[in-house]
Amino acid sequence: MKPGAAPILGLLAAAVATATQAQRAADIFPNKPVRIIVGSSPGGGADFTARIVAEKLAESCGNPIIVENRSSGAIYGLEATARANPDDYALDLAASTGYVQAVLKIKLPFSLRNDVIPVIQLTSQPYLLVVPPSLPAVW
Hints:
Layout: H1 5-28, E1 34-38, H2 45-61, E2 65-69, H3 74-82, E3 89-93, H4 96-104
Parallel strand pairs: 1-2, 1-3
């Protein structure tokens, strides 16, 4: 063995051990169904997006993904996610308008800063503000 090879072999062995442990952890996650909570009625845009994501997640992780609609609104969907058991796999698919509604509401039954964490932006939509030509809008 060449001088200096022992530390490199030690690092390689540690990397293999770490990768093996990570693979074992990945094999057991998720070990129960994952819920995607949607704060809107079935059949809408958010529900459609959630069902496409759920199908692909189920294929990749081999575990059931349940889409749960909360027709009462985005704030109630966020609350259901914030109040989920700590050992549940609960995700919330909320439109940005749901977060805006939650921020504008004076008193929430949960904390947006402490009880939910944004994970990923799934979609984006262009918005357009239009006014009648008689309105003296300044550009």
